[in-house]
Amino acid sequence: MRIRGKLLALPGLLWLALFFALPLIFMLIISFYQRGVYGQLIAEFTMENYIRFFEPLYLRILFDTLVVSVATTLGTLLLAYPLAYYITRLPRAQQMIWLILIMIPFWINFLIRSYAWVIILRSQGVVNTTLINLGIIDVPLALLYNWGSVMLGMIYTLLPFMVLPLYVSLEKLDVRKLEAAHDLGAKPWQAFWHITLPLTKPGILIGSVLVFVSSLGMFVVPDIMGGAKSMLLGNVIQNQFLSARDWPFGAAISIIMMIMSALLIALYYKAMKWEERLEGTK
């Protein structure tokens, strides 16, 4: 039985080895290479690419990336939790309709969706034209190419990644516990704080990890909706590979981001486990 199970897992393991592990090893190796004058790879060991990452310019971009990622995670959580809760309270047939509506953006190309926001928010776009025609403003508002538009695009793009795990957790919630709390005199916010929120922590954890890690590597939204003023680490990596032709430095940043993501996720899991143990001792 065990041998049959391993054989079933073999295609997936081979796929991961070929298209995940091998490229990762390749990136790790070239991160220690040197860049030639014309961008060619020189197989001479150096730590210069990793040392260069700690220059003030890149530390500032790292700080901006972390701030945007945390803000995106919190923003999606605040929007997704009430939405997922509302969906789980609907009849089953209506729940399916809402879930399909949430998934519809994935049916449309990501670039098209991002450029649609440019059409909506630009100076002659839908929002500014409507406000001017209504006499609310005289000159167009600067709605595009700033951090606000980047946040809007990031939250819009990653919201489904938070809604779906939360929906699964809330859908499994035992409503009898809420009814018991209500019968014992608990107020709605007390029932939410002491019952609903703790029981849906797995969904919050999975959704937060999915959104945060995706935000760290995002470069399309900052590029299209943030312009030259908004630079995240994903944009730096893209520029190193496509424009500057400095693959060793781009690979070094990628490896640093991957290690950083793994450490943050491990710390997050540790904190959640520690909190669960703390609650168990009460």
Automatic annotation (TrEMBL):
Location(s) in or outside the cell: Cell membrane
Signal sequence segment: none
Keyword Transport: yes
GO cellular component terms, semicolon-separated: plasma membrane
Domain of life where this protein originates: Bacteria
Annotated Gene3D superfamilies: MetI-like
Topological type in the membrane: Multi-pass membrane protein
Alphabetical GO biological process terms: transmembrane transport
InterPro entries on file: MetI-like (IPR000515), MetI-like_sf (IPR035906)
UniProt-recorded name of the protein: ABC transporter permease
UniProt keyword annotations, A-Z: Cell membrane, Membrane, Transmembrane, Transmembrane helix, Transport
Residues covered by the ABC transmembrane type-1 domain: 62-268
Family from the record: Belongs to the binding-protein-dependent transport system permease family. CysTW subfamily.
Membrane-spanning ranges: 12-33, 57-84, 96-120, 144-168, 204-227, 247-269
